[in-house]
């Protein structure tokens, strides 16, 4: 059994535990702060869960805890969770504010975060990254370059367990799928900003029809 210093225990166990606790409390604090005056907290929570984007964001926040329980000195897995947590909280806030102009900015953020989850080098299309690999390859290489068995005995590494890494990889696949679904929801909400709404188009068409009827009644020739 390997021995750990107080610094290693803090980095490998205390900080991950505090990070998970803060992650679980973050959406509750956000809902409590941003709720309408006089509205019960229980009703606000039910309204949040009833919205598809907010529900996906809550699931993403919950799954972030799996990646926060890792060895911060061995891999950058925790960074994927941190970036995704911030984006999910922004989703919750945007869903509550119902501001149309915020969706394009949020869609761009989702696009950048997907690039980070998929992996790749730094470029103009990827202003930040958690590593050269994506989320799943990062988990795969925790135990070594070729994903071998985790060391045991005196060479044991904290949070490096074959069963735990396999579980993280399964969760990572679901995690990426949830991000893709959230991206398309945000993208769909940007569609009305790309052109006039159907109501405006119908109003414009009715005005054209009315002008043609008036011209016909006056004996004018249509253009």
UniProtKB/TrEMBL annotation:
The chain crosses the membrane at residues 12-33, 53-71, 77-94, 106-125, 165-188. It comes from the Eukaryota. Keywords: Membrane, Transmembrane, Transmembrane helix. This is Uncharacterized protein.
